[in-house]
């Protein structure tokens, strides 16, 4: 379907003709996000500059029944910005002003299109920390992070995006501009709409401004690495660390396949004879960091670690963290199609879950390597195949269906941080049950009676 000329004219009046694109070449880059195999060409790409412009676009869409798909950087891994029914992709990246960083109130106020890294740097310039740190932070937007409730490498100690969202300005599909929450740490007036919008994946409202909590910048950070014969040993060490009362900032793992791929890609000097690698890091006062990392090292050794090393300096600490951050590009080189998945299980069942994933991969004859956030029980099983090999892609999808079923069977979930989008929707009812699915749809209908905002995703 293409948009009526009158509708295009109205859009141009709202945001300016330069900010409405309808040419085939202009639309193609918005046909995909970072999720492989999902493609849907929109009818228009519209880039508003203000909440009022967003409201006018949404009023027009509700009146005419045209789908609107909010989009930040398009870095999501769940087909969350898929325009498979055509319509308008509403790109928020022109709304990129940092409005306020307040050291006195420990908060920042930003427009939705500000990148996560830009917010982090602006906060750091004032001696403050914006804690959420998704691996995509140089490109991802704060609006996209809030809409997906993004996690990251510091989730264990610091939590995820939802723990930092104090308030939002959001535009409802019917055009009302609402302000939820605000500058307050304590505010229980009404249903917690800030939390409801956080993680709503662009299906309930378009976020235009966000107020986030900041923390004082920790004085020091350091990182260590422990190699284990098996991932089960690493899993037991993680349980022992938490049981010892230590909550480190970072506790990440790579399985043997990831270690090999990362070493070949980045040449970091990792040991290739290990079954698993655990990266641990902490931040805070120098003596506390040293004490915690030393103790974690002792606990790893007590749980069969083959080697434990603490980074001697910041450069080595950064190199170790790079081992985790480059897992995805390293694995992606092994084929032409990378399917990065996301599931979470209770922390003590992490190693058991990786074992199940290995069994499933063998059964379906697809290569799956797994890395992730050991501290959160959040795993990223990643399958790399040949883009032309339809049979292997089909087997990979079936394998991931079994992986999600296994996660649910362990009291886990089908996505810990990447979101449901269009990609995970077929698995959602198995996680939530029919009654919750029906409630989700009623909530969606209350916000979006015409069903125009990001259709075919959550709440559909
Ligand atoms: C290399 C790589 C590493 C990654 N690492 C992590 C990680 O560590 N942790 C993690 O959680 N994720 C990670 N991701 C996934 C992704 O970056 C996050 O989901 C991120 O929050 C998406 O931000 P975005 O600006 O790209 O949003 P988009 O991809 O544009 O949109 C994501 C969702 O949010 C909605 N949305 C976007 N902006 C708005 C808005 N202003 N108002 C309402 N809805 C909106 C969209 O409709 C869509 O449903 C990674 C992705 C890549 C490619």
Short structural summary:
Helix content is 37%, strand content 21%. It has 16 helices and 19 strands. It starts with a helix and ends in a 13-residue tail after the last helix.
Description:
There is one protein chain. The protein is α+β, with helices and mostly antiparallel strands. It folds into 4 domains: 5-91, Uridine Diphospho-n-acetylenolpyruvylglucosamine Reductase, domain 2 (2-Layer Sandwich); 98-216, Uridine Diphospho-n-acetylenolpyruvylglucosamine Reductase, domain 3, CATH 3.30.465.10; 220-327, Alpha-Beta Plaits; 334-432, 2-Layer Sandwich (Alpha-Beta Plaits). It is 37% helix and 21% strand. It is built from 16 helices and 19 strands. The strands form 4 sheets. Strands 12, 13, 14, 15, 16, 17, 18 and 19 form an 8-stranded antiparallel β-sheet that branches. Strands 5-6-10-8-9 form a 5-stranded antiparallel β-sheet. A hairpin with a 4-residue loop joins strand 5 and strand 6. Helix 1 (5-15) packs antiparallel against helix 3, helix 8 (231-243) packs antiparallel against helix 13 (350-364) and helix 13 (350-364) runs antiparallel to helix 14 (390-409). It is globular. The structure holds flavin-adenine dinucleotide. Flavin-adenine dinucleotide binds next to strand 3, helix 5 and strand 10.
């Amino acid at each position: 379907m293409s948009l009526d000329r009158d509708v295009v004219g109205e859009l141009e009046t709202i945001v300016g003709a330069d900010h409405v694109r309808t040419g085939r070449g202009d639309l193609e880059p918005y046909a995909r996000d970072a999720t492989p195999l999902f493609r849907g060409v929109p009818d228009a790409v519209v880039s508003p500059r203000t909440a009022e412009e967003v409201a006018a676009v949404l009023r027009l869409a509700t009146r005419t029944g045209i789908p609107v798909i909010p989009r930040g950087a398009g870095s999501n891994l769940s087909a969350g910005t898929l325009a498979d029914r055509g319509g308008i992709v509403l790109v928020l990246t022109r709304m990129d002003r940092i409005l306020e960083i307040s050291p006195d109130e420990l908060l920042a106020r930003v427009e939705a299109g500000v990148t996560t890294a830009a917010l982090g740097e602006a906060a750091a310039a004032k001696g403050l920390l914006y804690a959420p740190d998704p691996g995509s932070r140089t490109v991802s937007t704060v609006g996209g992070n809030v809409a997906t409730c993004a996690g990251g490498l510091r989730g264990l100690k610091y939590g995820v995006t939802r723990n930092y969202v104090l308030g939002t300005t959001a535009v409802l599909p019917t055009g009302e501009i609402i302000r939820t929450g605000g500058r307050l740490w304590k505010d229980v007036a009404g249903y917690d709409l800030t939390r409801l919008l956080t993680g709503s994946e662009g299906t309930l409202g378009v976020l235009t401004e966000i107020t986030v909590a900041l923390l004082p910048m920790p004085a020091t950070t350091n990182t260590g690495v422990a190699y284990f014969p098996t991932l089960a040993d690493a899993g037991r060490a993680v349980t022992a660390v938490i049981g010892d009362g230590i909550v480190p900032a970072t506790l990440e793992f790579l399985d043997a396949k990831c270690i090999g791929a990362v070493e070949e890609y980045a040449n970091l000097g990792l040991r290739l004879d290990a079954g698993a690698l655990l990266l641990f890091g902490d931040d805070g006062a120098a003596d506390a960091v040293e004490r915690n990392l030393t103790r974690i090292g002792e606990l790893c050794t007590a749980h069969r670690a083959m080697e434990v090393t603490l980074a001697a300096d910041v450069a080595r600490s950064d190199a170790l963290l790079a081992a985790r951050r480059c897992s995805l590009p390293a694995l992606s080189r092994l084929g032409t199609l990378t399917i990065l998945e996301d599931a979470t299980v209770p922390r003590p069942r992490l190693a058991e879950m990786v074992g199940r994933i290995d069994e499933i991969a063998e059964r379906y004859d697809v290569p799956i390597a797994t890395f992730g956030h050991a501290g959160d029980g959040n795993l990223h099983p990643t399958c790399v195949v040949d883009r032309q090999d339809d049979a292997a892609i089909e087997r990979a999808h079936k394998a991931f269906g079994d992986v999600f079923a296994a996660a649910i069977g362990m009291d886990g979930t089908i996505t810990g941080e990447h979101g449901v989008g269009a990609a995970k929707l077929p698995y959602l009812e198995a996680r939530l049950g029919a009654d919750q699915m029906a409630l989700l749809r009623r909530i969606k209908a209350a916000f979006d009676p015409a069903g125009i905002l990001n259709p075919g995703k959550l709440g559909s």
